[in-house]
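Collaborator request, handled under Task 6.
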Amino acid sequence: MSLQATIDRALVETPPGRAVWVALSGGLDSSLLLTLAAHAAHRVPRPLYALHVNHALQPAADDFERHCRALCSRLGVPLYVERVAVERAGKGIEAAAREARYVAFARRVARGETLWLAQHGDDQAESVLLAALRGGGIRGLAAMPARRDWQGRQLVRPLLGVTRARLVDEAAALGVRWCDDPSNADTAFDRNFLRREVLPLLGGRWPAAAASLAGVAERACEADALLDELAALDLARAGGMPARLALDALRQLSPARQRLLIRHACQRLGLPTPPSARLESLLGQLKARADARVHIAWPGGEARCWRGRCYLQAPLASVPSDWRREWDGHTPLTTPLGVVDGYLAPLEGGPQPLVLTLRQGGESLRVAGRGRRDVKRLLQEAGVPPWLRPRQLLAWHGPTLVAVLDVAVAEGWERR
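Structure tokens returned to the collaborator:
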């Protein structure tokens, strides 16, 4: 199949009437992809746009942008430029630039739309090698999927099965111009080192090396999908809630499936998966006494065990113990612990001025039909985990406690 036919087919597979964006860096791959996409759009009508992210990381950045503007002008494709500030914050420059780029993608590409990325087969081979050298598992070896859902958008790589040599030949045949990124020659970057030093050496001994590595990625992607299905079954048996896994169900699994389920649950929650050492510490404590305070933390996530459940969550943000905020009882209010909404007011009369505070200890609430109850006891009865009890929001009307939010309401008051 010709490259043009490949792109025509990819465009046919996008929803009619929904925009298709091409991430345009200005290099060979993306310049050719946009050219083919523009030709395809004459036969398969779709709204087509180009998106260029200017990272401002090198003097040539403005040249890339000018090239993109000229190319889009010739093709008649609207171009949008996103200028970003790359903040390293302890990350490598490549990872930081990628993060900034995806933030720009999300800002410009709407949910339900499709974004085409120009990675090709040689890029896939590099990704497989990088993952293997970094000790990645099946998901790492799966490298880049040809298609995936990303925050409600479709990310598609139509050229993933094509070698770079073929792209060069096609670009020459079509007279496509592009910009060479000077940083691609810097072998201090791991990917550049693999591209310029390692893959040519492998290809000299094994001519099909790049294709073979891409095949590894394809099979690993299939295996990863099967593992995902297995983890989903185990999650259903553990209660179906990734934030609260039933310990009895978790303990019945083999250690490998325990690790798989916890990683799967973290991914479902958008949490970083725990490093191997932290994960093994957690598995080692799954059989701790029922009253033990199990708490395993890692950057960006933590696990706690309580009352037969393993809780997975983001680290709790610190809130000053003397935090307080006025509330009218009905207007949604943003707090450090989330949004407070709904309605809280006396049964007779309209809303009253309230003050929200954190629990300090020793408070009590007069509950209809039950008399005065300690807040501590109410939280225990409601099954509020111990680590959340000091963060419990209380609502006061003057000196009187009128509600333990989401737990109990005072006699003579209503919450809906």
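The cover message to the collaborator said: "Residues 324-415 form one domain. The chain has a mean pLDDT of 90. Please let us know whether this matches your experimental observations."
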